[in-house]
Amino acid sequence: MNKTLTALYDSFYTPPQSADTRTEIQDIHRQLILKLDKPERRLVLRLIDAKDHLAEEMSMDSFVCGFRLAWRLANELNSYPENGRPTRSDQTGQDARCAPPERWEFPDEG
Predict the structure, then answer these.
(1) What is d(CA 92, CA 13) in angstroms, rounded to the nearest whole number?
(2) What is the distance between the alpha carbons of residues 31 and 28, in angstroms, rounded to a whole number?
(3) Helix-helix angle 38-78:19-35, to 10 degrees
(4) What are the backbone angles phi and psi of residue 76, rounded to the nearest 5°?
């Protein structure tokens, strides 16, 4: 299921268009090249890569959490009958529309 969530994320996510920030990053990178020796530049680049990786993971995690919330809300809304009032499952019998939350199936986390 993780592949499905990743595919959904990739299809819905559009990176923000931040030309000013990209230009600033390029300017700072040029300054670092001029001021730092090669070992220090590599260290800074590793730090930036790790930060970017963390930001990507947080973005994906936020998407998955939002998807799960939407999934739960959809399941909850589907448990209401046509008249708009919730019913107790012991009165109507168990079916997909009124399954208790502990029986809901969610996408795997990992």
Answers:
(1) 40
(2) 5
(3) 150
(4) -65, -45
Sign of CA dihedral 29, 33, 35, 38: positive
Number of helices (H), then strands (E), in the chain: 4, 0
Q: What is the pLDDT of residues 66-95, one digit of tens each?
A: 998 998 888 888 877 666 665 555 554 555
- Apex CA 57: angle with CA 51 and CA 58, to 5°? 90
CA–CA separation, 77 and 5 (whole Å): 22
As a whole number of angstroms, the distance between CA 80 and CA 43 comes to 56
Q: How far apart are CA 99 and CA 75, in angstroms?
A: 9
Measured in residues, the chain has a length of 110
Separation of alpha carbons 73 and 90, rounded Å: 21
Place of tokens 């589907």: 78
Q: CA-based angle 14:16:21, to the nearest 5?
A: 150
Q: What is the pTM of this model?
A: 0.57
